[in-house]
Amino acid sequence: MLRKGEYTIYNGKEFRFIESDSVEAIELISNDKNEMDNGFTYYKNNIYTKIVGVDDVKELYSIIPYAVYKGEMFPASEERKTGKVLLDTTKH
User: Fold this and answer.
1) Residue range 47-60, pLDDT digits in tens
2) Do 48 and 42 form a contact (C-beta atoms < 8 A)?
3) Measured torsion, CA atoms of residues 6, 84, 89, 16, in degrees rounded to the nearest 10
4) Distance (Å, rounded) from C-alpha 71 to C-alpha 68?
5) Contact, 59 vs 14, CB < 8 A?
6) What is the edge-to-edge ordering of all strands in the sheet holding 85-87?
7) DSSP states of 4-24
8) Which pLDDT tens digit goes with each residue over 25-49?
9) Nearest-angstrom CA–CA distance, 67 and 61
10) For a 10 Å CB count at each end of the chain, is N or C smaller?
């Protein structure tokens, strides 16, 4: 599985996150039901969230996957149904 998006480290684990309504907080996202034991709440469709302060996380970073194909570098993503890697060939 290719990771893509905004990530952080919270309590020694990596989580995807989105910005919260509060400037000093972020919303962690997990697909692990066991995180409910750590204060996460059920959102929908096997998604659990928790709002934490920016000061409570180790670092914030973006992951943008790339792949090298025939000597050229392309932005990459994953096709959800098959798991195949998709290369973006759009010229900007």
Assistant:
1) 999 999 999 998 99
2) yes
3) 0
4) 6
5) no
6) 66-69, 72-78, 85-87
7) -EEEEEETTEEEEEEE-SSTT
8) 999 999 999 999 999 999 999 999 9
9) 19
10) C
